Structure formats: C-alpha cells, structure tokens
Give the backbone structure.
Amino acid sequence: MIETVPGEFETIMKLYNLKHPDEIVSFSLAVRQGMGSDRGLFFPLKIPFLQDVNALLKLPFVERSCRILDAWIGSELGSDVVERMIKQAFDFALPIVEVESGIFSLELFHGPTLAFKDFGARFMAQCLGTFAGDERITILTATSGDTGAAVAHAFYGLENVHVVILYPEGRISPMQEKLFCCLGRNIQTIAVAADFDPCQELVKKAFVDADIRAKLRLNSANSINISRLLAQICYYFEAVAVAGSVDDLVFAVPSGNFGNLTAGLLAQAMGLPVKRFIAATNSNDTVPRYLQNRQWLPGKTVATSSNAMDVAEPSNWPRVEAVYQARGGRLDELLGISVNEEQTFESMRRLHACGYLSEPHAAVAASALRQSLKSGERGVFLATAHPAKFKESVEQVLGIELELPPELARVRDCRILSRRISNDFLKLKEVLLG
Ligand SMILES: Cc1ncc(COP(=O)(O)O)c(C=O)c1O
C-alpha cells in the first residue's frame, strides 16, 4: 500500500476539491476516495507543463505515456511503478486513420471492451491494485453504456474487489449490455428503470449514505475518478504525434459526461499543440447552449442513437471550467456543437462513402468537425466505440450487415444476469447491504 508521509506530501502532485478548495489530497487518496466531500471533484492544484513536447512526440506511444504520467504522479509512486502500470494498462493498438484528406479518426476502440473507456478503466484498476493492498473495496458505478464493460473487465476476477454497476434499462445497446452483464463472479449488474442521469444520482446518494459508508469501502470508477482522466491524456498526444502538428489540429470530442474532453484540455494545458477543441454533443445539448448564452439549463434527457452521450447534467463540467481557469484561458475558446439524429446518420453515411465505418458517437464528432473546420485547419475526431457495439443502428442506417468481432461474438448468446430495480434509492441500498 502506498501512503504518503507528511514530508513527502510537499513534493508530490496535490489535488483539491473544487467545491471545498481547502480539502487537499494526494493522487493515491483521490483515486481511492473518488470524490471529495459534498461530492466535489478533485482537480490538480498545478498542471505540469512539459518543456520537451517535440521530443516526446517522437517516442512510441507507451514510452511517451510513461513520461507524460510520470510528470503527474512519478514523484508520488516512483517512475518504475508508473511504467509498470502503463505497460499493463495500455497493451492494445491505437490506430489513427486518415478518413479524408486532413480528417483523422483517432480509433480508441481496440481494447478488450472495444471502447475508449478501456484506457481509463484499465489504468484505474492498476492504480487501485497498487494502492488498496488487502483492503476489500466495492466499486459502485453508473454507466451510460461503455464504462460498465470497461470497468467490469478491468476488475473481473480480482478477489478483493466487488463491482456493482447500474445502467438505464433498455437504454444501452444490446451488445453493450452483453459485454458486462453476463460475467457474474465479482461483477454485479443492476438494470434501473430510468435514464442515465437518475442512475448517476443513485450512485451519488450511495456515496454519502452513512449506513453504506459504514459497511462498505466504496469507490467509484466513473470518469469522476481522476486516474481515468490522466490515462486519457495520453492518446491526445498520440494523435498529434501521428497526424503531425503545425498548430493546425482541431479535436472534436463526442461528449456526454465530459471526461474525455477534460483529458484533452489537460493535454493542451501540458503543452500539447492543439489549435482548438469542439465539444460535440447529441441532442442532449446542455453544454452547447451554455457556451452560447452562459445559462446552465439542463433539460430532460433525450434518448438518441449515441446513447452513451445521453447525459443532460454532465458531471465533469466543473473540471472543464477549471482547466481553462488554471491555464488562464477563456471558455470562449471552446466551441459546442449539438448534432441531431438526422445529422448523425448523415455523418455515418458520409464516412461510409469515404470507405470508413463508424457508429453514432464517432459520427456525432465527425459531423461537428465538418461543420466547423475552417480552411487551413485539419481535424481529428475521436472514435470512441467499435461500430459493432452499435450493430443495430449501424446496419439500419447504412443498410449493411456487420460481422461481429471475436470479443462480441463470444458473448452474443450469453445470459444477462442483471437484477432489475426501480429508480428508488432504498432498493439500491438493500441490494448493496444485502
Ligand atoms: C462510446 C462513447 N462515446 C462518448 C462518450 C462520452 O464520453 P464522456 O462521458 O467522457 O464525455 C461515452 C461515454 O460513456 C461513450 O461510451
């Protein structure tokens, strides 16, 4: 177990609670706690700035990622520990495909659960494995689609970790559900008769419930956990390394809870040359509206084909604002674009006409990128999930038949083991303590 002694605390990265700035913790404590008091998000007091970005961009992905994360947590954990964790977490491909001249897809879906969440969840599992020692922990998390699978696989079979995952019943794709609801053993899944936002609310309530806290050592594996965000910084560097940057690269990030975008902004704050970011949402457009008129007015969640982004109250938004504040930037630099269903399908068809297969989340980002790219700019959209995870909508929109990759073919006929509950905190409490 890694603990910091008072003297060491002076030299390591510290994080503060965005709601209570006096609450300051080490990285390992932030990872174990997940959230600060009052459900506040942890945010670094200082963002490390890399002096040698050009040299770093020449390194292979894993080696470069070790250096990037070493700048954050090397002084606390030791560079050798950081290196071991990265090597074990990032052991899959990360291709960048030029789909049209000057438009790149950053394919983040080649991990074991075919979604970008594998980067964060696998790294977080490494962190907890390093910090937790013999302590038995319960990971409690809500998923709008892909977090569930990534977390379940990252922690599957670990003796001291019990994983409980809530998801909105009927609002994730059948393939997404199969990927994490058939595992059993230490993975318990709960289908809630509600949208994603209430699932997230139930989880938040559990974290502040005195009875639950007294009995369980709770941890959240949502993108509110800072370890996940740090891991995600690394692939933005890879995109710039492969596409090559003359300060002309624009990133379009398909956004739901805004963890992915936060990681990109942190990469930029570390010195990565990025011209600008686009926050691409589906019809759940709280952020694009806010960026236009500075009024935070979350609407009711709307169900869309990019269901993992059906989030009306993105929990990472305070961090997005905090990054701009920390680097003395202005929120005006961020463009928000909301892409409706017809535009999403049109984007999928257009990419397909270029010989590129995509699913609705990537297509939202690609559409936003196309709408906004100016002459002299090149763009990267983040392809956050494998098209086969959204087999039904991809086949319907493109009129094609998709073959399942082995990861999905394996689970297609497995039985769903989820327990169903209504949107009722007492029911969840019963399950957790029962
Ligand atoms: C496929 C996919 N794309 C995009 C997102 C949105 O990412 P974020 O919540 O970090 O904004 C998610 C989140 O679950 C996702 O699963």
Observations:
- Residues 265 and 323 are 7 Å apart (CA to CA).
- The chain has three domains: 6-44, 94-110+226-398, 118-224+410-433.
